[in-house]
Amino acid sequence: MKNYETVEVETDLLICGGGMAACGAAVEAAHWAKKNNLKVTLVDKAATDRSGAVAMGLSAINQYVGLKDGENTMKDYVDYVRNDLMGITREDLVASIARHVDSSVHLFEKWGLPIWKDKDGGYVHEGRWQLMINGESYKVIVAEAAKNALGVDNMYERVFIHEPLMDGDKCVGAVGFSVREDKFYVFKARAVLVAMGGAVGVFRPRSIGEGAGRAWYPPFNSGASTYFTLKAGAELTCQEVRFIPVRFKDAYGPVGAWFLLFKSQATNALGESYMQTRRGELEKWAPYGMVKPVPANLRNWLMLLDVMEGKGPIYMQTAEAIKNIAEKETDPKAAKKKLKELEAEAWEDFLDMTISQAILWAATDIQPEEKPSEIAAAEPYFIGSHSGASGAWVSGPEDLAPAEYFWGYENMSTTKGLFCAGDASGASSHKFSSGSHAEGRIAAKAAVRFLVKENPPKPAIDGAVINKLKDECYQPMKTYEENVGKTTQEDVNPNYILWRPYMQRLQKLMDEYAGGVAAQFATSKANLDRALELLAMLKEDSEKLGANEMHDLMRCWENKHRMYQAEAHVRSMLFREETRWPGYYFRSDFPKMENDWECFVNCKYEPKSGEWEMKKIPVKKIF
Amino acid sequence: MPSFVNPDKCDGCKALDKTACQHICPNDLMVLEKDSMKAYNQDPSQCWECYNCVKICPVDAVDVRGYADFVPMGASVVPMRSTDSIMWTVKFRSGQIKRFKFPIRTTPEGKAEPAGGWANEPDLNSTALFTEPESLGLPEVWKK
Ligand SMILES: Cc1cc2nc3c(=O)[nH]c(=O)nc-3n(C[C@H](O)[C@H](O)[C@H](O)COP(=O)(O)OP(=O)(O)OC[C@H]3O[C@@H](n4cnc5c(N)ncnc54)[C@H](O)[C@@H]3O)c2cc1C
Ligand code: SF4
Ligand code: SF4
User: Fold this and answer.
1) Which residues does A582 contact at the CB level (< 8 Å), separation at least 6?
2) ipTM field
3) Closest ligand to Cα B21
């Protein structure tokens, strides 16, 4: 096998990831580090300018509280998030992010992000909490500020983090490999901040051919945060709370502008609005079924009930919405102008963040003012920053957190010195791009405070430990090399498994047994037990992954990460004996919401024994 | 096939040490074929159609063809990105063309100043993040 150079980097704070949360962490940490003479290092598997979920751009900032104009109160936001998640929310964390998020948004504007303004200079809202932006370069701008603060010499791009670096039960850095050069990286750090996004590809995507990469969530976020925090011994929370977005069908184009800005309706093929015809169903999910807006998962559920009765396809009534808006203009010239504006807004919504949807509409000659367009539920994703909640169990801020939720530094996981933000931190949904940035800042400041106050020693790691990690890292290359000559077909070889069939095996079992699209999002104890049996064999076979080059090596590790995300998910769904988010998943053996399950489900993995610990944690309200 | 490269236009970024499309793809898909010095997408089925390779190519050699397994043929969506705006040309299957132009940033490239010009004197032990409370537009950070 090739010789891979080992590169050691010593730093005080290591930021893993380069997305919204990591870029927030970078600007904040750089400020405090300078004052306290500390070094901060950031590592991203891709080019930070265009990495993570905002790589393509976004058309809206989804969290803006507007405290300065008295638009909303903190309680309003916390109520909204708690209700949307059917009561399962860390109010201290949601409030912590909400009190800082406006500051991140105001910084974005200063950095150059065009935010839409009305005639009086106020922000244009898409909905109560959402601002309209021209967001093609959103990520470029946010990354630029991070780079300018941190300095490019402190940033490593194209280095894939595959494992935490541990000293006993302390996390003292990370190891990874370059996907460009023959280099193995060892980052030794006195504190670590994880922000490597959520996960897609754990479940079989709806499109399994060339379009397999067109999931709603980007194929390049593959469960690294979950894997890293689990392997570092941190407690995770809400691993059962997946997110299933309803989007325009097949290209997963955004529906926010249509629902919120244009007040469009969705109907079944008979033209019936399921939100009206099935209103009675919401009572079963009281009190959360009775709130406004109806929680995302319950809106999904009402739609799914129609689909299961064969009343699909489901349509977004775009033509009707446009007609209703244009009719408000009495002057025909003004009406024409309004129509033109609406058209540009509708297309920008796609072009800024889901260009595929623009291609699909153009390729199917869709004129939204003439006919409706199909929408559908996507496959499950893990994105704790959006309307899911999965992530690490982290400390709240001292002044807001109930005693049970506080252990010294905000956003520190249960592993000392390991901080989490964005999709990596759980039970604080609806932070989105702006809240993830703000949370990255909160976590970074706390991490610097931790470094200054606790002054942890420089990690001393035995060379043998590093060599072992390095061997494990490149094992798939070795396995491939030793065995590829044993058959005449590279991809059919009993001695190894390539990443693609490995991923497909994971996706198939999750889809069929753990409530994927094929199972109409339903599952049960029997199904989940079966999923665990198959996952156990998949885990054993991960030792036989084979890769013939660096890109494939990254794919092997991505799918190993996904597998741990899958197991955390299955175990958490199994543990929670009720159905709480019917439009995300449905436990057919426990079809109702139960009061004694109004609690968090936390899990912890013991790396040495491979055992999982599951527990219930009470939900404490602060508002 | 998601992104694809026009061999007549691609010049392999003139043999610089890394090509633009390879540098930017968030999923590590664009690679340079060393013999022909032309780039290609090594795994179309993992492409997100994020268009970052298209936008960054200095000679407009990269384009996108909608996913073959669900997109009918004949349409195209082509961006032209400058330093402050982007212009999109959408061609429908029917041949109809629509153009849209949107701003992309309000400051010169590279000039994002981390503190945004705000006063910046909070204490490490306070709840205020850097630039706060000024950047919040409030006299102090919200307290319960
Ligand atoms: C399709 C879509 C539309 C959305 N629309 C909106 C919207 O309109 N408005 C809004 O406010 N929010 C929106 N969001 C939500 C928003 O994008 C996320 O909340 C936010 O990006 C989360 O930030 P993050 O830092 O946790 O993850 P990300 O921004 O996804 O960043 C993850 C980072 O980790 C890196 N990484 C991953 N694995 C590794 C590894 N192994 N080693 C090293 N680095 C790694 C990635 O390269 C990336 O830099 C949307 C999300 C999606 C997917
Ligand atoms: S960026 Fe353009 S010119 Fe450069 S290698 Fe890629 S396709 Fe070729
Ligand atoms: S469109 Fe995006 S994901 Fe596809 S190859 Fe280009 S940069 Fe990569």
Assistant:
1) A285, A297, A298, A301
2) 0.98
3) 2
Stated as kind and residue range, the H or E segment containing A534 is helix A525-541
CATH architecture of A471-603: Up-down Bundle (1.20)
Chain B residues in contact with A359 (beta carbon < 8 A): 49, 64, 66, 71, 75-77
pLDDT in tens, B40-85: 999 999 999 999 999 999 999 999 999 999 999 999 999 999 999 9
- Residue in chain A lying closest to B122 (CA): A32
Q: Which chain B residue has the Cα nearest residue A367?
A: B92
Q: Tokens 């905002």 sit at which residue?
A: A54
Band the pLDDT of B1: cuts 50, 70, 90. low
Any CB–CB contact under 8 A between B140 and chain A?
no
Is the pLDDT at A525 greater than 80? The verdict is yes
B60: left (phi over 0), alpha (psi -120 to 50) or beta: left
Confidence check: pLDDT of A494 > 80: yes
- Domain chopping of chain A, boundaries: 246-377, 471-603
CA A607/CA A164 separation, integer angstroms: 12
Global confidence as pTM: 0.98
The residue among A368, A369, A366 whose CA lies nearest residue A327 is A369
Rg, C-alpha atoms of chain A: 24
- Please state which CATH number belongs to domain A246-377: 3.90.700.10
Instruction: Measure A365 CA to ligand 1 centroid, in angstroms.
Output: 31
Q: For A592-618, how does the pLDDT look when each residue is reduced to its tens digit (9 = 90+)?
A: 999 999 999 999 999 889 999 999 999
Q: Tell me whether residues B64 and A359 touch, CB distance under 8 A.
A: yes
Q: Give contacts of B 6-35 with A, CB under 8 A.
A: 18, 23-28, 31
Q: Would you say residue A313 has pLDDT above 80? A: yes
